[in-house]
Amino acid sequence: MPARKFYCDYCDKQFQDTPGDRKRHVKGILHQQAKARWYDSFKHQQQQQQQIPNPPPLCFHFVNTGFCRYANSCKYFHPNAPSPSLSPGNAVGVSLNNLPPSLQPPPEGGYPHLPFVDWG
User: Fold this and answer.
1) Is residue 94 assigned to a domain?
2) I need a labelling partner for 91 at 20 to 30 A (CA). Which of 18, 36, 53, 102 fits?
3) 5 three-class SS
4) Are 3 and 16 in contact (CB under 8 A)?
5) What is d(CA 101, CA 106) in angstroms, rounded to the nearest whole number?
6) What residues have CB less than 8 Å from 67, skipping those under 6 apart?
7) Do the domain assignments include residue 111?
8) What share of the chain in percent tops pLDDT 70?
9) Terminal CA-to-CA distance of the chain, rounded, Å?
10) What is the DSSP letter of 72?
11) pLDDT exceeds 70 at position 112
């Protein structure tokens, strides 16, 4: 019966799968360098994700009532109020008209009554 082979993804090598061989390979300097290079390849992606600032979430109290007791010191975004984090050239243009339907205030006369439909 042939001996099983172990494949190391970091080093792109195959060798006999015995506890001694595997231990010798994992402790080897070439394996440790290859493993460090592999993990370092993700640092660039992680740094790019940290550089993109996330805009603050909407202040639901302001969206629903048009008033926030914290005003400019509120940690959430007020759609109609000028935001210090957004410059005029980068303005997203958030207003009550372009919010998703679930965040828009109800119509002035209320929602229309729909006829009852018996399902099934």
Assistant:
1) no
2) 102
3) strand
4) yes
5) 9
6) 61
7) no
8) 78
9) 65
10) G
11) yes
Residue 77 is assigned to a structural domain of this protein: yes
Sole residue written with tokens 């550089």: 51
Distance between CA atoms of residues 98 and 108, nearest Å: 17
Write the secondary structure of 6-56 as one string of H (helix), E (strand) and C (coil).
Answer: EEECCCCEEEECCHHHHHHHHHCHHHHHHHHHHHHCCHHHHHHHHHCCCCC
Instruction: List the domain range (segments joined by +) for residue 14.
Output: 5-51
Number of domains the chain is built from:
2
The count of C-alpha atoms lying within 13 angstroms of the C-alpha of 29, restricted to the half-sphere facing its C-beta, is 0
| Residue 105 maps to a domain | no
pLDDT digit string, tens, across residues 18-53: 999 999 999 999 999 999 998 888 887 777 766 667
Same-domain pairing of 57 and 41: no
Is the domain of 41 the same as that of 58? no
Bridge partners of residue 6, in order along the sequence: 15
Sign of CA dihedral 39, 43, 45, 49: positive
Neighbour count for residue 59 (Cβ, 10 Å): 19
